Amino acid sequence: MADKLHFALVSPERELFNGEVDHVVVPGSEGEFGVSPNHAPVMSVIKPGALKVINEGTERRIFVNGGFADVTPEGLSVLAEEAIDLADVDLAQLEQQLKNAQDDLRDANTDDRRAAAQRALSRVEGIKAALAR
């Protein structure tokens, strides 16, 4: 059996993944980076995007938003502020969320509301962009 990478992905809501994989591509703040078995230790802040888990020829894509990735001799741990399995995203619901966020931004009448609406819009646009790739 070829070497495997131990990978764990945890968000505040739940543990999304914990197991052995061939490779993981992480959307790091300095750009995407791949992690394979025996990777050198590294820590990175995560930027919003699709985290790709590759195992035995299949790819699972998970939208991550915020958090950090830690590569150690034991494997890769990702602690994400938010993580959504892209296979579970309802496209019609996402389009409605996008429209609602755009409306909220347009209707915002204070700096705080504009900032909150912009964060919500950026999040939904990030999920949509992750789906498109």
UniProtKB/TrEMBL annotation:
Q: What InterPro entries does UniProt report for this protein, alphabetically?
A: ATP_synth_F1_dsu/esu (IPR001469), ATP_synth_F1_dsu/esu_N (IPR020546), ATPsynth_dsu/esu_N (IPR036771)
Q: Where are the transmembrane segments?
A: none
Keyword annotations for this protein, in alphabetical order, are: ATP synthesis, Cell membrane, CF(1), Coiled coil, Hydrogen ion transport, Ion transport, Membrane, Transport
Q: ATP synthase F1 complex delta/epsilon subunit N-terminal domain location, by residue? A: 5-83
Q: Which terms in the Gene Ontology molecular function aspect does this entry carry?
A: ATP binding; proton-transporting ATP synthase activity, rotational mechanism
Give the main localization category: membrane
Name its cellular compartments: Cell membrane; Endomembrane system
Q: Which residues form a coiled coil?
A: 84-111
**SUPFAM superfamilies according to UniProt:** Epsilon subunit of F1F0-ATP synthase N-terminal domain (SSF51344)
What topology does it adopt in the membrane? Peripheral membrane protein
- Which CDD domains does the UniProt entry name for this protein? F1-ATPase_delta
**Domain of life where this protein originates:** Bacteria
Gene Ontology cellular component terms for the protein in this record: endomembrane system; plasma membrane; proton-transporting ATP synthase complex
Note the subunit structure: F-type ATPases have 2 components, CF(1) - the catalytic core - and CF(0) - the membrane proton channel. CF(1) has five subunits: alpha(3), beta(3), gamma(1), delta(1), epsilon(1). CF(0) has three main subunits: a, b and c.
Q: Give the family from UniProt.
A: Belongs to the ATPase epsilon chain family.
What the protein does? Produces ATP from ADP in the presence of a proton gradient across the membrane.
Descriptive protein name: ATP synthase epsilon chain
| Gene transcribed to yield this protein | atpC
